[in-house]
């Protein structure tokens, strides 16, 4: 499953195509090609369980990959990232409250701790915002 997710990530970064059906065809072909490559690698290393799983994933892609499924996947990605962003923003609000309390009490160790946490959460938010922007651009290209 992790391989399929990474394959989908690679496919999502392919770029913009002229139409949704062209993009879907390219996307489905790219998914198939990536899975076939992973199968060859797993075969080279004698990983029969991985080969079986990848072959199953390839059969699913060949059977179910359509313009509609690619569009639905893109919409799911955007919604998932929007939820993740909202959750991280909530985390930031909590850390900011904790930081305010620590500042009010004058506890230098806790202030430093919450400042580090706040910086980490803000970095996470920036990363998620970039991923969300890319996912929205991918979705927009499919809707053309």
Low-pLDDT regions: 3-20
Structural class based on helices, strands and sheet pairing: mainly alpha
Quaternary form: single chain
Order of helices and strands: HHHHH
Chain-averaged pLDDT: 85
What's the alpha carbon Rg, rounded to whole Å? 21 Å
Q: Would you report the number of β strands? A: 0
Number of helical segments with 4 or more residues: 5
- Could you say which overall geometry the principal axes of the C-alpha atoms support? elongated
Level of helix content? over 70%
Give the distance, in angstroms, between the N- and C-terminal Cα atoms.
30 Å
Topology:
Layout: H1 2-12, H2 20-44, H3 48-64, H4 67-105, H5 108-142
Helix pairs in contact: 1-2, 2-3, 2-4, 4-5
Can you give a write-up of this model?
There is one protein chain. This protein is mostly helical and 144 residues long. The protein has helices at residues 2-12, 20-44, 48-64, 67-105, 108-142. Helix 2 (20-44) packs antiparallel against helix 3 (48-64). The chain is elongated and about 60 Å long.
């Amino acid at each position: 499953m992790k391989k399929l997710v990474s394959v989908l990530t690679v496919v999502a970064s392919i770029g913009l195509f002229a139409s949704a059906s062209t993009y879907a065809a390219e996307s489905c072909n790219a998914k198939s090609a990536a899975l076939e490559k992973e199968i060859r690698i797993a075969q080279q290393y004698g990983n029969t369980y991985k080969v079986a799983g990848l072959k199953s994933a390839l059969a699913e892609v060949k059977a179910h990959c359509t313009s509609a499924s690619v569009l639905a996947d893109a919409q799911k990605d955007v919604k998932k990232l929007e939820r993740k962003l909202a959750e991280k923003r909530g985390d930031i609000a909590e850390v900011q409250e904790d930081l305010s309390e620590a500042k009010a009490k004058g506890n230098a160790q806790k202030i430093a701790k919450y400042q580090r946490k706040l910086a980490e959460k803000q970095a996470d938010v920036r990363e998620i915002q970039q991923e969300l922007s890319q996912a929205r651009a991918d979705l927009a290209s499919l809707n053309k």
